[in-house]
Amino acid sequence: MTSLPRQLYTASATRQLDQLAIKDHNIPGYSLMYQAGEAVFQVLQQSFPLAKRLLVCCGAGNNGGDGYVIARLAQQAGLDVKLVSLVDIDCLSGDAAQACKDWRSLGHQPVTFSASLLKNTDVVIDALLGTGLDREVTGEWRQLIELINQSAVPVIAVDVPSGLSADTGSLFGIAVQADITVSFIGLNRGLLTHQGPDYTGQIMFYDLGVPASVYQSVSEEARLLNWDDIKQQLQPRPKNSHKHNFGHLLVVGGDHGMAGAVRLAAEAALRTGAGLVTVITRPEHVAMITAGCPELMVTGTETGQIPHHIMNNVQAIVIGPGLGRGDWGMNLLSQVLQSGVAKLLDADALNLLGPDDGVQQDWVLTPHPGEAAHLLATKSADIQHDRFLAIEQLAQTYGGTIILKGCGSLVKSGHEVPAICPYGNPGMATAGMGDVLSGIIGALMAQGFSQSDAARLGVCIHALAGDRAAGLAPRGLIAADLFVEIRKLVNPD
After folding, report:
1. Are residues 267 and 353 in the same domain?
2. d(Cα 14, Cα 378) in Å, to the nearest integer?
3. Which of 195, 255, 278, 419 has a CA that sits 20 to 30 A from residue 118's CA?
4. Which of 171, 198, 223 is the last residue of a domain?
């Protein structure tokens, strides 16, 4: 991924940025459109230098206008260009009409689309639907997108792959699967979460020289996490240190048959730098966990009671990995909820929670879409359809810091805008990964990081460790593979 701006916007906010540049700074709209076309043509030349045949697919509006600029530049450079328009070009207006007129002035006209065009092209430019789409893609638009996706021809999408929601990352039925997406002025948040990363390919951003004051006038609606920014919080440790300087974390869970979950969370906490880690679990798991990781202190409880001397001597608690949903787990959760210690709830701790439990400001909740659906009494599909709305609802209902896991995990604390983690890979879709994340964040909280900072740091450490451990072979990655990389990441200097 190329360097991207931290500020993220919805489609309407990006249009607002565009209009402010035009009206308040007297930048002609057509000038911005021409610069956008130039940027895409530059990307085409750099990414596909041997391409000689170009198919440009245009719709209406400014997105289609960008397509006409690209077609004109490509033809002037000597490329063989075919342009398909799914709208009557005589009905175009504004800057798009001007761009079309300038292209036609070279003696060109749109061609009728046929599947054979894709057999005789090197690159497709997707300038069909843009960011303003708000309904399902149907008819000839859908047919064209289907044919583009079925071909092996690389695609450069202008603004957003056609059919993808720029706001949420959901599909309007179908979307172009781009190899590169070129974004302008304001980077749309939907490109980076849910289905967005599966359709955008590499994202490249150009601000087109819009003045910085324009961005000061429009509030960002999400923020992109960047490791180079946040790793600065991980300062070197003093030489005169001892284990009690770095916090004592309590990890609670591991009901019958689920000792591995609590073990993974606890060891991840040690690898993240917690000074001490205690595990509360079933008595029969004590020997196994201790043998596998003798650095852990492990206490068994048959009744689900946490000894007071342990509860009173920890700086943070993680509860949920392998907790189960029976009385044993409920007893443990009740004690943790009554504690004033900073806490993180994951897995079955979330499944035992409900809206009637009220708002707690001193916790971190880490639901995946299914657990989020339980917390909001809805369906997983509804959570995924608009992950930004879901995390806002979770924050309003439960308070604290929320991590909505998944592709492009979201983090939200208080009134801050949601942050998106751009790291991670499909190899991490395997058992135990969430337990490792919980241990990482719990360790950071125990070391004194605020819950908000611990969540953002932890999500990035976890995802980057997954990327480094997976390399080019994500299939077969397991949660324990992350431990070595976690240790490297928490020592950035």
Report:
1. yes
2. 31
3. 195
4. 223
